[in-house]
Amino acid sequence: AEEARGLRAARLNSTVARSEREDALADLAEDALEFLFLAPEQLANQDVLGELAVSRPSLIVVDEAHCISEWGHDFRPEYLRLGAAVEALGGPTVLALTATAAPPVRQEIVERLGLEDPAMVVRGFDRPNIRLSVDRFYDERHHHRALVERIVEAPKPGIVYAATRKGAEAIAASLAEAGVRAEAYHAGLGAKLREAVQEAFMEDELDCVVATTAFGMGVDKANVRWVFHSAPADSVDSFFQELGRCGRDGEAAESVLFYRQEDLGLRRFFAGSGQVGEAELDKVAFFVEVAGAPVEPTDLQVETDLSQSKLTTAISRLEDAGAVEVLPTGEVAEVEDGAEREEAVAEALEIEDRRRSFDRSRIEMMRGYAETDGCRRAFLLSYFGEPFEAPCGNCDNCQAGRTEAPPEAVPFALGARVRHGEWGEGVVQRYEDAAIAVLFDEVGYK
Question: Which residue, among 77, 99, 439, has the nearest Cα to 242 in the 3D structure?
Answer without folding.
Answer: 99
